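Sample entry (365 residues):
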Amino acid sequence: MAADTLAGFLAPLPIAALRLEAATVDALAQVGLKRVRDLLDKPAAPLTARYGPGPVERLDQALGRRPETIHGLLPPALHEARLGFADPIVLTADVERAVAALAEALALRLAGAGVGARRLDLRLWRVDGRVAAVTVRTSRLCRRADHIVRLFRERLGERLDGLGGEAGDPGSAIELAVLGALAVETAVARQDGLGMPAADAGAALADDVARLLDRFGNRFGFDRVVRFAPAASAIPERAARAVPVLEPERRHDWAAHLRAAQGGGHIGRPLLLTAPPDPVTVLAEVPDGPPVLFEWRRVAHRVARADGPERLAPEWWRPGDATGRLTRDYYRVEDTDGRRFWLFREGLYDRPGDAPRWFLHGVFA
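Predicted structure, serialized as tokens:
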């Protein structure tokens, strides 16, 4: 459609047809700008200076002079539970009880279908036509009603406050609540143990951790909650990578990964690493030998035993990364008080251009 023809169709429409905010529509009406035709010939700079970019941007989008991203509608929930109220509810406590009832009904439907949910959507329809929408996601397949209720409870208050939930406004009363599972996957039955207390306790702990990660992810954002997975690198700080908890969880053989990273040998690495490695001052009997005394954070440690070295060559195929550009010799050392540390010397004395330095990279428990 030509721009002139489109402008002719839009001209008699009210300003509100441009999807402007109510305050902007009122401000324009006060100066006599009530129809789209009143804006067609107005210069953009004064309008933008006085009313912000909204009127000019919406007019350009309506006339096809500026692109506009259109977001598709949400797909219908594959599994959902509905609860209507003959007497609309207002109190947050009533809403929480309604969510608990919906969660029980939805959990039964998910279990009957043999699936679990990864994304759940709660919609609260108000008497005045407005809708409060709350969405939560889970790192593992979920069909436990108590977990669903807990995830929504932490986010429900802010959504109700944003819509005037308990402010006494009659229009804020809720007449319909719908809980739907927008993303589901087939749930494979899993036997965590044989009734042995230790096995059952381990499985329960893993489930508790997964539910805790779900709460953290929905509260702070799943881009900030990660888990660690093995990475193909012999450099300790690269031997693991952070992956989002929303990625499907895989079982990793960390012992095999450690043996592979150490070339088949396994002299042990500490669970606690310093990031980045801490510089230390070292005294050794010979330049290439293990330390006999080192100072870390202004505390001197005399070495009683030392094991090593474990030599790690630099990863030369990473030219753009300065980490691990020199050969490292790692030592496990124990001081006279029985504390064990993981030290390494970066650089070789017999290699021209190297300036060897010592670092503490970890502490053994």
